[in-house]
Design brief:
The chain is α+β, with helices and mostly antiparallel strands. 32% of the residues lie in helices and 27% in strands. The chain has helices at residues 12-25, 31-43, 83-96, 107-121, 159-173, 234-248, 263-271; strands spanning 5-8, 54-60, 63-70, 76-78, 102-106, 126-127, 132-137, 150-153, 193-198, 204-210, 217-224, 253-259, 274-284. Strands 1, 2, 3, 4, 5, 6, 7, 8, 9, 10, 11, 12 and 13 form a 13-stranded mixed sheet that branches. Helix 3 crosses helix 4 (107-121). The radius of gyration is 20 Å and the shape is globular. It starts with a strand and ends in a 9-residue tail after the last strand. The mean pLDDT is 92.
Length: 293
């Protein structure tokens, strides 16, 4: 039996052999870690940047209690932790000199880790972007009546439109986006399946993407309607359509994130059947930990 505490994995296979069942046991609160690990599994460690991933799990009395995953250059993703568990992780990573530029997790976990990172490294963490609310689809409630038009799965002919709208979405929420078409395969957007809502004349009016299914769950992201077409029900219709498709494909959980300060999107998602689960927060952590070894 392993000793209690945090254990860093040498590779993804080692992590999944020990912690895979734990991650799959609660796919909704574990959604960000599950999708990060799935990207590593399917695309390799260099898919989104240089550097080795940071992987590990927390063990107590022979049971896995938490998992961490970081894909450079992104933030540390964590399953829910107590303040004591977050402090122990920050102390361990700081002592080993690991670079941790940011953290994203359930609000209490992210805040506890940011505070602990400050104590152990002298960094000055700062909130990054808005707090987001995690939703899980309950009983689907499609828009009634839906806007005129239909849903259509995006294909190769839509690549230019997808790149344009994903770029606009990324700019609106403060995310990075590939500099050109050649960099698209390295983008997180490239792993997702997209659906358009088209008007009766075939013009795309909104889009929604969905992450690959893992542990029975998918996450809807992004949902985007260009500004001049908003307020006509297209976002709700295309979101309901990707949910219908995901459930038909065997998904047991459909989740998404919404900015807690945006009453329009929160109301929309509730209307079509999404129920709030918890809130997530991201922090910039200031700088790498000093190497003390």
């Amino acid at each position: 039996m392993r000793s209690d505490g945090w254990h860093l994995a040498e590779d993804l296979d080692q992590l999944l052999a020990r912690a895979g069942d734990f991650l799959r046991s609660r796919p909704v609160p574990h959604t960000t870690v599950l999708t990060a690990i799935e990207a590593l599994r399917t695309r390799g460690p260099g898919a989104h940047g240089a550097g080795a991933p940071l992987l590990g799990h927390l063990e107590r009395s022979g049971e896995v209690r938490a998992v961490l995953c970081r894909r450079p250059p992104g933030p540390l993703n964590l399953t829910p932790l107590t303040p004591e568990e977050a402090d122990a992780l920050a102390a361990r990573l700081a002592a080993l000199g690991h670079t941790v530029p940011g953290v994203r997790a359930e609000h209490g976990t992210a805040t506890a880790f940011a505070d602990a990172w400050r104590r152990h490294t002298g960094a000055t963490p700062s909130p990054r972007g808005e707090r987001t609310r995690l939703y899980r689809l309950g009983t689907p409630v499609p828009p009634d009546p839906p806007p005129a038009g239909r849903g259509r799965t995006a294909d190769a002919r839509d690549h230019g439109q997808l790149m344009l709208w994903c770029r606009e979405f990324a700019a609106a929420v403060g995310e990075t986006f590939p500099a050109d078409a050649r960099s698209w395969p390295e983008s997180p957007f490239a792993t997702r399946d997209f659906t358009f809502w088209e008007t009766p004349d075939g013009t795309p009016a909104a889009m929604a993407g969905v992450t690959p299914m893992v542990a029975g769950q998918v996450r809807v992201a992004p949902v985007y309607t260009p500004p001049h077409l908003r307020g006509r029900g297209y976002a709700g219709a295309v979101t309901a359509e990707v949910c219908r498709t995901a459930l038909a494909a065997g998904a047991t959980d459909v989740v998404l994130f919404a900015d807690v300060t945006n009453p329009t999107s929160n109301a929309l998602y509730r209307r079509i059947g999404f129920l709030p689960v918890t809130e997530f927060t991201a922090y910039d952590l200031g700088h790498a930990a000093p190497r003390t070894a």
